[in-house]
From TrEMBL:
It comes from Kineosporia succinea. The chain holds residues 471 to 749 of 749 of the full protein. Residues 23-277 form the EAL domain. It comes from the Bacteria. This is Diguanylate cyclase (GGDEF)-like protein.
């Protein structure tokens, strides 16, 4: 029995070591990818439901991997989130996204002067002491007004991290807006919304998938509550005209989804007659 137990420990050891090594390899690969400029942002528009006008963009990261091709965020962000690597990625995203919006604004102030840029920020990054400085740096370098930047965070972030709330206050004092992503999928109740440091609510796309009356009533409730707390509401994952019409009926003013525009690289987005990719 003793030898058996020992064997198990050794097997566990080997498995653990193999996993740690695999993880270290991917981390090194991501770090090298950052250094080699393999990451790129795709931008998806958020449109007004009533007028069909461009309201903002959400920056979504992709990894143009030399062997694996275009790698979606779900295949590397979760791993990066387990270490400080996510802060490095977040810093790169902040700098690139603000630079891109500044370039578009310069190319066509009329169409883009009032447009904002939303960037996804992970829990660990929001908790870090350096985020505020990094946001200031990105705004300073790009010359963008703080009000043109929106940080998208998920609800687990806001509730679980004691420092997150303090950091959100500092960021909002700077003039940056905060958006609560994937709302309805976590633990935040509608009542808790009024205590959160949040300007915009993004209703998770799963709510648009089901057509039953109960779900529609929930969406209506979220929209009404958000407005009562003076928040804007974005419906995510709009794929059909019928869904868009329904959002108009219940007073949801902003929408994002394949029906309105897919995420695209800057070189494919034409602003002021030019493709103003910032490089
Ligand atoms: P998310 O923040 O909820 O972003 C929305 C996701 O839904 C995006 O997937 C987008 O391409 C997709 N989407 C948009 N409209 C539709 C639609 O009409 N139908 C469907 N089926 N999907 C739609 P993507 O780009 O693969 O990103 C997945 C997740 O990865 C994001 O979810 C976000 O949590 C994370 N992510 C993306 N970029 C970043 C980043 O720069 N930093 C961090 N920390 N996370 C990121
Ligand atoms: Ca998001
Ligand atoms: Ca979302
Ligand atoms: Ca998500």
């Amino acid at each position: 029995a003793k030898a058996n137990g020992r064997g198990r420990v050794e097997m566990f050891d080997a498995a653990l070591r193999a996993e740690l090594e695999a993880r270290a390899r991917v981390e090194a690969d991501i770090r090298a990818g950052l250094a080699r400029g393999e990451f790129e942002l795709h931008f998806q528009p958020v449109m007004t439901v009533a007028g069909g006008q461009l309201h903002s963009y959400e920056a979504l990261i992709r990894w143009q991997h030399p062997e694996r091709g275009l790698v979606p965020p779900n295949e590397f962000i979760p791993l990066a989130e387990e270490s400080l690597l996510i802060c490095e990625i977040g810093r790169w995203v902040l700098n690139s996204a603000t630079k891109q919006l500044a370039a578009w604004t310069h190319a066509d102030p009329r169409s883009h002067g009032g447009v904002t840029m939303a960037v996804n920020i992970s829990a660990r990054h929001l908790a870090s002491r350096t985020l505020l400085d990094e946001v200031r740096h990105a705004l300073g370098e790009s010359g963008l007004e703080p009000t043109r930047l929106v940080l998208e965070i998920t609800e687990t972030v806001v509730l679980d991290e004691p420092t997150a709330d303090a950091h959100l206050r500092e960021l909002r004092a700077l003039g940056v807006a905060v958006s609560l992503d994937d709302f309805g999928t976590g633990y935040t109740s509608i009542g808790q919304l009024q205590n959160l440091q949040v300007d915009t609510l993004k209703i998770d796309q799963s709510f648009l998938r089901s057509n039953d009356e109960a779900t529609q009533a929930l969406v209506q409730l979220m929209v009404t509550a958000a407005h009562a707390f003076r928040m804007d509401v974005v419906a995510e994952g709009v794929e059909t005209q019928a869904q868009l019409d329904r959002l108009g009926e219940i007073g949801c003013e902003l929408a994002q989804g394949y029906f309105l525009g897919r995420p695209r690289p800057a070189r494919d987005i034409v602003v002021g007659g030019l493709s103003a990719a910032s490089g």
